[in-house]
Every structure is written in C-alpha cells, then in structure tokens.
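queue> pop job 88
queue> type: inverse folding (structure -> sequence)
queue> payload:
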C-alpha cells in the first residue's frame, strides 16, 4: 500500500490531509490502536482532527481508485443523504471495533440507497467484511454469494469474494458453506484474473481456494493453484522491502498448504540477504526451514531475527518459532525456556486480541513441553 499512497495522482489532496503511519507492534502506538479498535493490518482511517472521530474507515488493502473514493468520502464530513449518513455510522462503528453494529448500519445504508447510489458496491464490501469480522460466518458467506454477481468488477468485487470465502472456510461441511462455495469459487477465479483486484486480495483468494480444495482432497487442484500463485510471485520484482516482505508472506502461505518448502527456500534466503535487518525475513525463512526439517538452520534464523526485532509481537512470534524447532529436535527443556521468554514478550503486546491469542497459544505449548520433559 505504500506504493499506492505515493502515487502522483494523490497530489491533489496535498493540504487536505496529514498522512500518519503507525507501526502495529510499536508499544508507543498502543493507546491509538486501542482507542480505535485496530486488530488487523492494514487498517485506514480518515480522522477529524477535532476529537479524532473517524469520518471514514477501511479494513484491508485498497486499489488506487478505492483509495481515492475513500479519501473523498472522508472529506465529506457532512453526509449528503440518509444512505450516506448510515454508511458514515457504519464506518464509525467499524473504527470502534463494533462490527455487529457496523453491519447493521451498512445494511440500513443499502436499504435507504437508490439504485444510482455511487457508494453501493463499496458499502456491500464493507458489510461483508463487518459480518466476517463479527464471526457471522453464514450471513457473510451468503451475502457475498448473493451480491458478487450484482456488483461491478472494481476493487470491491475481490474484497467481497475473499471475505465470503474466508467465511466458507469456517463453515467446513455445513450445507450453507458448501452452497456458498459453489457460487463463490468461480467468482474467485474471475477476481484473480482482474487487474482491479488488489494484490493482497488476489493472494488471499489463491490461499482460500487452495484450502477449500485441500479440504476436499483435491490434490491436483491444490498443486495447480499453488503453481499459478508461486509463478506470479516469482515474476513480481519487488520495488521496496515492504513489497518483498509481502511476497515472502505469500510464498510461505502457498508452500505451507502445498507442503513443499523447497519451492520457496531459495527466494527466502535471498530476501534475508537483501534485508539483513528485517526480522520478518528471518522469521519467514525459519518457518520454512522447520517445514523442511532443517531445525538447526531454523534456530539460527530465529536468532538472527531476534537481534533486529522491534516489538513484543514480533519477539513472541520469533521465540515461538524457535521453540517449535527445538521441540522437533526433542529438546523440550530448551524449548520450555524459550517459550517462557515468549510468554513474557506476549504479555507486553498492547492489542488485547493479539496478546490474549499469543498467551493462550504459548501457555499450551509450555504445557506440552513440560509433558515431554517429564516423559524423558
């Protein structure tokens, strides 16, 4: 998204906005993140400087055209119609992490809008995302399945389809999930091929299609999708370290589902060499070294990452990965000691959801390590 934000076509907004970027894992930013209910990245706000009220909220990456529409919506602090007012309320609820209320406000906006309302597609996308974020899996999947055919083929289309597929994955074998998957999977294939689908969403579409195919035991389809995805990743030349990191995250996702770390290890080694001070590069490499059963190499990669980690979330993640490698080497006592360090790091994570999830996962891992220690 940094490349999009630097696009020259945004120059007309100079003087209207003060651009502010906050690191999710920096402890100094936690008061803002807590105030605005930020649980995922990227999250975007247009804030009124008087009281920091959100005039517009967007979860997830955007195309340039979506970003322009988002900024224009944020400039219009006074809504123009009842539908606009309801949409603005939805954005305010979303900015407060009140996803149920946001979904209701977006539904109300769609009910009030006339057929020519220019915000319809983006509001449908926000509705589906709010339903997913509030774990209303069936409503999310069914809304996405019913709306995907009706929206235009801009950036909102990919956002709607990927949200619906994520909800389908939560439904497993439920009849509603299977019915929605039948409708959404062809739309996902269409969205992947569209230039209007933002890259983050295209990668998530690949990932969810692979997971659904894997769940059905369709090994050949998993392999075909992974080859398409990995070929796209290999053909993309990163223009920045941020872009390189995003490509590496996708590589790890694809190789993990495929179960073939050898396909991505050379690229991850090159990334760590290109970004020696970026702990994420070392973390992604360590994850694939573990999958390749190269546990000593994974431990060393984690140690390299720990030398450059910038916040408690990254530290906890690296330490958990290191402990995983040690457990695989049948060193439960060493793994437990590393996990105790990870637990101390996790308790310093500022975002409650991330903190609680990490503490629970680490506590369970410590119990497993202690069990294996006692068995020896």
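queue> result:
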């Amino acid at each position: 998204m940094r490349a999009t934000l630097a696009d020259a076509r945004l120059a007309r907004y100079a003087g209207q906005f003060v651009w502010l970027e906050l690191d999710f894992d920096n402890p100094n930013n936690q008061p803002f993140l807590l105030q605005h209910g930020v649980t995922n990245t990227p999250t975007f706000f247009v804030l009124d400087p008087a009281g920091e009220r959100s005039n517009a909220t967007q979860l997830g990456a955007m195309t340039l055209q979506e970003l322009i529409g988002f900024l224009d919506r944020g400039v219009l602090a006074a809504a123009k119609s009842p539908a606009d007012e309801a949409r603005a309320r939805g954005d305010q609820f979303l900015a407060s992490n009140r996803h149920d209320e946001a979904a209701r406000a977006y539904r109300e906006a769609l009910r009030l809008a006339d057929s020519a309302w220019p915000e319809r597609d983006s509001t449908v996308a926000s509705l589906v995302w709010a339903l997913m974020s509030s774990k209303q899996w069936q409503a999310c999947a069914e809304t996405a399945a019913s709306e995907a055919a009706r929206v235009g083929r801009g950036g909102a289309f990919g956002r709607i389809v990927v949200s619906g597929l994520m909800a389908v994955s939560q439904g497993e074998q439920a009849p509603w999930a299977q019915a929605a998957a039948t409708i959404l999977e062809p739309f996902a294939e269409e969205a992947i091929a569209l230039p209007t689908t933002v890259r983050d969403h295209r990668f998530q579409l690949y990932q969810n299609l692979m997971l659904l195919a894997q769940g059905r035991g369709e090994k050949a389809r998993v392999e075909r999708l992974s080859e398409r995805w990995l070929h796209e990743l290999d053909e993309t030349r990163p223009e920045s370290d941020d872009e390189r990191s995003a490509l590496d995250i996708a590589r790890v996702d694809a190789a993990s589902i495929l179960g073939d770390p050898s396909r991505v290890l050379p690229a991850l080694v090159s990334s760590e060499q290109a970004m020696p001070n970026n702990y994420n590069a070392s973390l992604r490499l360590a994850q694939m070294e573990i999958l390749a059963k190269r546990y000593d190499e994974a431990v060393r990669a984690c140690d390299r990452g720990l030398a450059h980690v910038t916040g408690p979330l990254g530290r906890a993640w690296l330490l958990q990965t290191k402990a995983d490698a040690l457990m695989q080497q049948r060193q439960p006592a060493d793994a437990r000691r590393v996990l105790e360090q990870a637990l101390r790091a996790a308790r310093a994570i500022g975002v409650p959801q991330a903190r609680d999830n990490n503490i629970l996962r680490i506590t369970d891992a410590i119990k497993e390590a202690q069990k294996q220690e006692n068995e020896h």
